[in-house]
Amino acid sequence: MKVVRTAAELRTDGSTGLVPTMGGFHEGHLSLFRAARAENDTVVASLFVNPAQFAPGEDLDRYPRDEERDAALAEENGVDLLFVPAAEDIYPDGFQTWVDVEELGSILEGEHRPGHFRGVATVCLKLFNLVRPDRAYFGQKDAQQVAVIKRMVRDLAVPVEIRVCPTVRDDDGLALSSRNAYLSPEEREKALALPRALAANDRSALDGLAVDYFEPADFEPRVLAAAVRVGSTRLIDNVVLEGETA
Ligand code: AMP
């Protein structure tokens, strides 16, 4: 595996799969790498903690960063190129062009994190333009992100196939997330209410936690989606309600 920091070094052979990430790798990320490995000649993973998708006061500064560990995990799981761009290359001086998926980007997460999906859609389009993948891989864990990216790809005729992989959970049911690293053991115990409430479709299981939302969302597939805050950590999760299992 090669670590590359500039777009000029991003030479790929044959079909290419891209896995956009912000690092702090766990089995959820690794499952995407393996899915990309199975379907493409070249696998590119990007590692970029995208400032544009964090609002002031969010966890940009404390977001887990360990490039060496991430690089080893990426290599072991079939990544050929780990693309670690500099912020100045993603957002050059004078940057002023944004992708705003207006409606899908403003409900649920978008309501609680204004500007979040504008940052997500813009960085993904930029990464698609730099890497030119045939396929890009996303996790169902972030169901609204998938909906936003698919909408952008259709609306702007972006030549990439979006592939979605199932949510990977710990044995206790908690969806894997880089942000789980923030949880104390007591908070982690409290956080288990989130997957339980979703699995039982029972909002009352979240009593005592700060709930941002707990509601069905008409994505494809339809999901029950929720966001809660446990201490200073914000967690999101969802379960598929009907249709294909994702
Ligand atoms: P992140 O590094 O958190 O931006 O996530 C990178 C990709 O991994 C996104 O497409 C996420 O949806 C996906 N992902 C994160 N957590 C999980 C999980 N527990 N299961 C499956 N995919 C995940």
**Number of domains as seen in the coordinates:** 2
**Hey, roughly how much beta strand do the residues contain?**
15-25%
Distance between the termini: 29 Å
Under the CATH scheme, which architecture of the largest domain would be assigned?
3-Layer(aba) Sandwich
Task: Characterize the main sheet.
Answer: 6 strands, parallel
Which ions, cofactors or small ligands are bound in this entry?
Answer: adenosine monophosphate
Q: Look up the CATH topology of the largest domain.
A: Rossmann fold
- Structural class, please? alpha/beta
Question: What is the global morphology?
Answer: globular
Q: Please give the oligomerization state of what you see.
A: single chain
Provide the spatial order of strands within the biggest beta sheet: 1-4-3-2-5-6
Given this structure, which CATH class of the largest domain is correct? Alpha Beta
